[in-house]
Design a protein that fits this description.
There is one protein chain. This protein has helices at 2-21, 40-55, 62-75, 86-97, 124-127, 147-152, 214-227, 245-253, 299-309, 361-373, 418-428, 430-440, 443-447, 451-457, 462-474, 485-501, 503-510, 515-526, and strands spanning 82-84, 99-102, 105-110, 113-119, 135-139, 142-143, 165-172, 176-183, 185-188, 192-197, 202-207, 232-236, 261-266, 272-276, 288-292, 314-317, 325-331, 337-346, 390-392, 398-400, 409-410. With 527 residues, it is α+β, with helices and mostly antiparallel strands. It folds into 3 domains: 99-188, Pdz3 Domain (Roll), CATH 2.30.42; 192-413, 2-enoyl-CoA Hydratase, Chain A, domain 1, CATH 3.90.226; 418-519, no CATH class. Strands 3, 4, 5, 6, 7 and 8 form a 6-stranded antiparallel β-sheet that branches. Strands 10-11-12-15-16-21 form a 6-stranded mixed β-sheet, sandwiched between helices. α7 (214-227) packs parallel to α8. The longest helix has 20 residues, at 2-21. The radius of gyration is 25 Å and the shape is globular. It starts with a helix and ends with a helix.
Length: 527
């Protein structure tokens, strides 16, 4: 598996980045004029920047100096206090709001053209008749093809004001070129990837992040599963890097009895803010299983900690990331912002799950990589815990603070790293690109299939899998998956299902024979 080892740091870096970047966001407000009052130390910095601006021998962009200064200041505070440049803030805000204004398509830049992978169900493009496989050539007078334009980010050209209209010029196989007018609308960014029944009594919901819309999505999914007969529930928070705290609290409230503590925060002055469950819970009786792994962070850990500390359910998987700091966002007036750590959060038993960061950011992030080296991801006995950080739940269960949520039931990571290789192929777009091109060879047939028909009729054979490996080699990526052809075929079929039917179809296929889900199925039958 030379390939997976080569790309492992990149893959992990992406996952850690998600966990580090996403934090709770609260409105920044401070009525005190003292916050921005005159301060000789701040004036010293202003004078230095002005001096450089007017007198330095070479022309220099003082804005860049300011950004470097801000970044250096925050780096010396903690790993999660960050500066967000103006060019990044809009996209980040959209992601955490849970929607954006656009035409509602996911696309693949195939041969330097916007090629529609699928349309958002109920979105503007679907209503206007856009279909998977269509090529969008122009938006009003803007040409939307060519290598340079693809690199410049074509998605922004399809965005605009709410209810504004855009005329698209579209090419479709069998129909040719035609024009269609699309009225831009709110396009959801899903945070609930899948919700379905694992068996006749066990429901499953996968949440990929905690955005403003997450609780509403989750509640809809939960209610639908209850209507289908779910008596027990699996909440999958693997690779969920966190986000807003409020949706995590509301989700936990659905499972906890009235007035029990969900979590509390404490700032540097010792002020404590408690968060309790209300009388709104709709699933306070059935069994609950929470799936976590080394990339589950922040709000994910708040949810898992609340369930674990209240003896409400079983945590299954591997030790979570270990982010127990709360950030507040403040705009800096030029389109940029900072997220500053303002407090720590604690689980109901009083434990902080924040891992140490006193030795600097480099060692902090390398700790994540150390879990691979010390065997923790393969063996629960390798997890290092301190007796001084031992806590006891009301039911007498021992839990530990000081660095993530330790699961009640440990499930090891695949030591062959096959999963990481396949995940990288998904994240890099290689697998999606190959699947798109294959679907495009017979687009009309695939577009007419229902999901049930797809699952019944479409089988990935050896030729299809070998052609994918050849496709990757031609693009400079050598993959060694000998003896793991079945896993490759499963990922290819899941990717096809995702492009045709969405993330729920992907998860339903990829979760077959999943180690953590199999463990939960076994536990649910034993208890």
């Amino acid at each position: 598996m030379g390939y997976s080892k080569k790309y492992l740091p990149l893959f992990l870096g992406l996952a850690v980045g998600a966990g580090v970047f996403l934090g709770s966001k609260l409105d920044f407000s401070n009525p005190s004029a003292k916050l921005f009052s005159y301060n000789p130390k701040k004036e010293k910095l202003n004078r230095l920047i002005d001096y450089i601006d007017y007198e330095y021998v070479d022309e220099i962009n003082t804005d860049s100096i300011v950004e470097v200064t801000v970044n250096r200041i925050l780096e010396n505070l903690d790993p999660h206090s960050i500066y967000i440049p103006s060019e990044e803030l809009e996209g980040i805000t959209e992601n955490m709001q849970g929607d954006f204004i656009g035409i509602g398509v996911s696309y693949y830049p195939y041969r330097d053209t916007i090629s529609v992978i699928n349309t958002i169900k109920g979105g503007p493009s679907e209503k206007s008749g856009i279909k998977a496989g269509d090529r969008i050539l122009m938006a009003d007078s803007d040409t939307l093809y060519g290598e340079r334009l693809i690199r410049d980010g074509l998605a922004n050209r399809l965005k605009g004001e709410l209810n504004s209209q855009v005329q698209l010029r579209v090419y479709r196989k069998g129909k040719g070129i035609f024009d269609v007018v699309v009225k831009r609308g709110r396009v959801p960014i899903q945070s609930v990837d899948a919700a379905y029944m694992l068996d006749d009594k066990l429901g499953y919901v996968k949440v990929n992040r905690f955005a403003e819309t997450t609780y509403k999505e989750f509640k809809t999914a939960l209610d639908e599963l209850i209507d289908k007969g779910a008596e027990n529930m699996v909440i999958d928070l693997r690779d969920n890097g966190g986000g807003f705290i409020a949706p995590a609290l509301k989700m936990a409230d659905e499972f906890l009895k009235d007035d029990v503590l969900i979590m509390f925060t404490k700032n540097k002055k010792g002020a404590i803010e408690n968060n309790f469950a209300t009388n709104k819970g709709s699933f306070e009786q059935g069994k609950v299983y929470v799936l976590i792994n080394e990339n589950s962070a922040s709000a994910s850990e708040i949810f898992a900690g609340a369930i674990q500390d209240n003896d409400r359910g079983t945590i299954v998987g591997r030790r979570s990331y270990g982010k127990g700091l709360v950030q507040r966002e403040m705009a800096l007036g030029d389109g940029s912002a900072i997220r500053l750590t303002i407090s720590r959060y604690y689980t109901p038993t009083g434990r902080s799950i924040q891992k140490p960061y006193a030795n600097g950011n480099k060692e902090y992030f390398n700790e994540y990589m150390e879990r691979y080296k010390n065997g923790e991801l393969q063996n629960a006995d390798s997890i290092q815990v301190a007796d001084s950080l031992k806590f006891k739940t009301p039911g007498g269960k021992i839990v530990y603070g000081g660095g993530g949520i330790i699961p009640d039931i440990f499930v090891s990571k695949d030591t062959t790293r096959v999963g990481e290789t396949l995940d990288y192929m998904l994240r890099s777009g290689r697998m999606g690109g190959y699947v798109f091109e294959e679907l495009d060879k017979n687009r009309a047939y695939y577009n007419d299939l229902s999901e049930d028909e797809f699952n019944e009729k479409i089988n990935i054979d050896d030729t299809f899998a070998q052609d994918f490996l050849k496709y990757s080699r031609q693009r400079g990526i050598e993959i060694e998956l000998k003896n793991y052809e079945d896993q490759l075929k499963k990922y290819l079929k899941a990717t096809m299902a995702q492009q045709l039917f969405g993330t729920g179809a992907f998860e339903r296929i990829i979760n077959k024979d999943d180690a953590m889900i199999n463990k939960v199925l076994s536990l649910s039958k034993e208890e």
